[in-house]
Amino acid sequence: MRPAPAGEGRGRALVPQAHPDRARRRLPAGRAFVSDAREGRVRGWLRALLRLTSLRLRLVTVFALVALVAAVSVSGIAYWLNRDAVLTRAQNTALRDFRKTLADQATTLAERPMCDDLHGMAAGVAENALDYQVVLVDEIADGRICQAESDPARFRLDMVPAQLIEAVHERREGPAEYHLYWQRVSLGGEPFLVGGTRVIGGGPTGYMLASLAPEEDDLTSLSWSLGIATGLAVLGSILLAQAAATMVLRPVQRLSDAAQRLGEGKLDTRLEVRGADELAELTRTFNSSAASLEQRMQDLSARESASRQFVADMSHELRTPMTAITAMTEVLEDEVDNLDPMIAPAVQLVVSETRRLNDLVENLMEVTRFDAGTARMVLDDVDIADQVTACIDARAWLDAVHLDAPRGIIARLDPRRLDVILANLIGNALKHGGSPVRVTVREEETPAEGQRVLIEVADEGPGIPEAVLPHVFDRFYKASASRPRSDGSGLGLSIALENAHLHGGDIAVRNAPDGGAVFTLRLPREARLPEREAAVAERNGGGPQAPEGEAR
């Protein structure tokens, strides 16, 4: 603390001090450093926090962090301002009193005091002081240095920091040769204020020691209060953030639920538009998109229904003339040997194309039954090996097919529909993959699906291009880059898959690692009729349906 210019007075005057609230000289305090490792951990924690997937949690977390930073900043600023004010007020009060008391006692001190005079002055200063202890140091009459302590047990010269002693004894230029200095120190874990100055004219040097423990206790209580207030502020911000997040996310959740219903096929899903903010605009956009999607799906459904109705009508309309044409071609085929050799090839071509057209009509009629849900099954106990053998033998494929089918695998299936499936799969393999075709029959059992029959048909061809694999069961799909062009209708594999689905089974296709396509048919050992189909079958007497063609 720097003194002001000396004033006039009787006897020895202390070096006057400047206004205590403008203390400009003090010994340097220690410097605090923030650990780089701690900063790195904080940054890593923040990055991990920002990766949280829950939008609600992220909103609440951001609100809480903002509130925490704001509360800690305000509390920190308030604490340091109050700390500075409290400590400054305490130290200025003590230093002013020390200066005044020392000045009053110095007027009664002799020019060449004795050591007892210094002890008496020290006791007088301490007696009139505001709870602080003093040490006076001066050269007495016999030339010795005397140290007079008001309470040697509580304050001695060796407790004064060396830097403070050096600063007090440093002579300055100007009317005020010496200044009043102070320093906050910690002794035994307790904070103290140490001050020191010299009397003008070569008088004694005085040091004082005042405890700052009461102020430290007040600051500790203040820090606890600010900490509790900060915690309550953060808790309140979390509650407010939760409420705000709920208000913000409720429309988002409504949109999510509506989008889920839309994905489930409920195209009439709409949301009520509330307000005029961005979320309301998003809701309007959703409703508009849903309406447009519903309209497009209705148009597509109408077109598909019209297309199916056209195919059904066309199939039925063609069936009657095709019956007559087929009968006539059969007559021509029987008389082909009696016809002119120039006409016979034309007759054979007509017979072949008529059969192909008849197969196409039958396939189209079967497709219409699948679409209308009127396809029926007639279940019977079937030996799979016998059924596969009969299918191959009926089409004269015995020399081109290698069969591995153990007898005794019995399944309750529709024999006619199983024959259609096998005929399409094996015929497809022979037509596009070449012989020999390997047909393997085995059974498997899984906890989820129970006992099932597996029929695997593998050819020796080049396989199916990866781009074609997802479409091999599509209706009328015949595109193939690696296989020769077929004269089939493109319905055979589609009909085979629909028949497998009727049984509760499926057909999968893949390319073998060493080449060739592999079709795997999986059927349950006990196929069951749906209640509606069972009722229809019972009402119709379970009669067989018209056989499907073998064209693909």
UniProtKB/TrEMBL annotation:
<dbReference type="InterPro" id="IPR003594">
    <property type="entry name" value="HATPase_dom"/>
</dbReference>
<dbReference type="InterPro" id="IPR003660">
    <property type="entry name" value="HAMP_dom"/>
</dbReference>
<dbReference type="Pfam" id="PF02518">
    <property type="entry name" value="HATPase_c"/>
</dbReference>
<feature type="transmembrane region" description="Helical">
    <location>
        <begin position="224"/>
        <end position="249"/>
    </location>
</feature>
<dbReference type="Pfam" id="PF00512">
    <property type="entry name" value="HisKA"/>
</dbReference>
<dbReference type="GO" id="GO:0000155">
    <property type="term" value="F:phosphorelay sensor kinase activity"/>
</dbReference>
<dbReference type="InterPro" id="IPR004358">
    <property type="entry name" value="Sig_transdc_His_kin-like_C"/>
</dbReference>
<keyword id="KW-0812">Transmembrane</keyword>
<feature type="region of interest" description="Disordered">
    <location>
        <begin position="529"/>
        <end position="552"/>
    </location>
</feature>
<dbReference type="InterPro" id="IPR005467">
    <property type="entry name" value="His_kinase_dom"/>
</dbReference>
<keyword id="KW-0418">Kinase</keyword>
<keyword id="KW-0902">Two-component regulatory system</keyword>
<keyword id="KW-0472">Membrane</keyword>
<dbReference type="InterPro" id="IPR036097">
    <property type="entry name" value="HisK_dim/P_sf"/>
</dbReference>
<protein>
    <recommendedName>
        <fullName>histidine kinase</fullName>
        <ecNumber>2.7.13.3</ecNumber>
    </recommendedName>
</protein>
<keyword id="KW-0597">Phosphoprotein</keyword>
<keyword id="KW-1133">Transmembrane helix</keyword>
<dbReference type="GO" id="GO:0005886">
    <property type="term" value="C:plasma membrane"/>
</dbReference>
<dbReference type="Pfam" id="PF00672">
    <property type="entry name" value="HAMP"/>
</dbReference>
<feature type="transmembrane region" description="Helical">
    <location>
        <begin position="57"/>
        <end position="81"/>
    </location>
</feature>
<feature type="domain" description="HAMP">
    <location>
        <begin position="246"/>
        <end position="298"/>
    </location>
</feature>
<dbReference type="InterPro" id="IPR050428">
    <property type="entry name" value="TCS_sensor_his_kinase"/>
</dbReference>
<feature type="domain" description="Histidine kinase">
    <location>
        <begin position="313"/>
        <end position="527"/>
    </location>
</feature>
<keyword id="KW-0808">Transferase</keyword>
<dbReference type="InterPro" id="IPR003661">
    <property type="entry name" value="HisK_dim/P_dom"/>
</dbReference>
<dbReference type="InterPro" id="IPR036890">
    <property type="entry name" value="HATPase_C_sf"/>
</dbReference>
